[in-house]
Amino acid sequence: MINTIYRLSSPRRFEIDFEDISFSENCIVRPTHLSICNADQRYYQGTRDAKVLKEKLPMALIHEGVGEVVYDKSGTFKPGDKVVMIPNAPTEYDDIIAENYLESSKFCASSKDGFMQEFVELPKDRLVKLPQNMNLDVAAFTEIVSVSVHAISRFDKIAHSKRETIGVWGDGNLAFITSLFLKKMFKNIKIYVFGISRDKLSDFSFADETFLTTEIPEALRIDHAFECVGANGSPVAIEQIIKHIYPEGTIAIMGVSEYPVPINTRMILEKGLRMFGTSRSGKADFEKTVEMYKAHPDIVRYLTHIIGNVVEVKTFADMKKAFELDTRKAFGKTVMHWNL
């Protein structure tokens, strides 16, 4: 079967290519809803290092998406089943290192083609079936939700048991998702959110308190923290966390920065803090995320608040429209209804 692939050939320029798909042991999925990530935008806008762009492109973008099963030889899935596609592609198993940290693993829209294709060929263990009547616009960005679930799961194993207050720095999509799931996964913990936009913070209605980062009470203290800022805001966010966290607290670093970030190691040592990083997620995190969707329907309702643009994509012009709209958004996820 001939498959059509839509690859980014250079910044802001897509091209079409064709490859054969064989009906092998893998499943064949038709993408239906795709979500644009900041990582996709760095390729689209050409803000990645020129050497990286030269090595990676041409490449099909998008690693957040859902689709409809077309073929599964194993019978695990039926034609028409709605599934989340897992972009992480491990090539080996390790007893200690998770699949998303193995250096040998491939990742869609980074080290292999992403989901901007007519059909996607994936092993059956790279798919998770969605519940019936799931909001597919929300399901489209399950990958970033699973990243938060992964970080919280690691935090639960690492952090000490004094967990009265957790601070989340950031007022964007990642902070919204992380603070929401913290609230659902730890019932008796107060969640404080710290951001730079009063308007964005008003959307965090489930949080116990929100603070502008310019107006944090001097005496405020938290037990643990999640940094969801990234980029140029990381240094200030991490400095504030170190200042306001209790001794022996745990700090999860989730924000991505292109450049090295200075950190106040003196105070980390003085307070005996733990700091850990998280990146991407694995199948177990996707499965846990979907189970949370089922167990807490209000999670899906909250997540609809971060759907920004929804674009019907039938042509190259529609693809460019979706990415250009996404560059101008202040908040939220851009979802493409993939009808190519």
The number of helical elements comes to 11
Principal-axis shape equals globular
Approximate strand percentage:
25-35%
CATH superfamily of the largest domain: Medium-chain alcohol dehydrogenases, catalytic domain
Mean pLDDT: 96
Q: What name does the CATH topology of the largest domain carry? A: Quinone Oxidoreductase, Chain A, domain 1
Straight-line distance between termini:
16 Å
Structural domain tally: 2
Structural class: alpha/beta
Can you describe what's shown?
The strands form 4 sheets. Strands 3, 4, 5, 8, 9, 16 and 17 form a 7-stranded mixed β-sheet that branches. A 6-stranded parallel β-sheet has the order 12-11-10-13-14-15, sandwiched between helices. It is of the alpha/beta class. The protein has 2 domains: 202 residues, Quinone Oxidoreductase, Chain A, domain 1, CATH 3.90.180; 132 residues, Rossmann fold (3-Layer(aba) Sandwich), CATH 3.40.50.720. 30% of the residues lie in helices and 26% in strands. The model has no long low-confidence stretch (mean pLDDT 96). It contains 11 helices and 17 strands.
